[in-house]
Structure formats: C-alpha cells, structure tokens
C-alpha cells in the first residue's frame, strides 16, 4: 500500500522538477531573434491567408455551377 502511495506522489514531483529545469534553461530572445520569429510568423499568416483566399475564389464559382444546375 505504501509503495502505491509513493509511486502516486512521485509522478507529480518529477513533473514539477522537469518543469523547473525547463524554466531555468529558458531565456528571452534578443532583438534580432525576436524580429526573425516575427517575420516568419508574418510570412506564414500571409501565405495561409493567400491560400485560403485562392481556395475560396475557386470554390465559389464551382459551387454556383453545381448548385445552379440542380
């Protein structure tokens, strides 16, 4: 019974220990790294927006042809 309780308590202790080690290793990005990350995210947003717009632009006429024929 004591082994079960000990193993039940051990998992959260290891999780907290790993979390503290992770936070201690983290550091804030410097200005150039932050700008690179921001640019990559902006390019991703623009790319996904363009793809979505093109798909919608193609989908509307095809949908009108299919639904209009019925």
UniProtKB/TrEMBL annotation:
Membrane topology field: Single-pass membrane protein
Protein family (similarity comment): Belongs to the SecE/SEC61-gamma family.
Family matches, as PROSITE patterns: SECE_SEC61G
Principal subcellular localization: endoplasmic reticulum
Annotated compartments: Endoplasmic reticulum membrane
InterPro entries documented for this protein: Prot_translocase_SecE_dom_sf, Translocase_Sec61-g, Translocase_SecE/Sec61-g
One MF term in the entry's GO annotations: structural molecule activity
Gene3D superfamilies for this protein: Preprotein translocase SecE subunit (1.20.5.820)
Protein name: Protein transport protein Sec61 subunit gamma
UniProt key word Disulfide bond: no
Biological processes annotated in GO: post-translational protein targeting to membrane, translocation; SRP-dependent cotranslational protein targeting to membrane, translocation
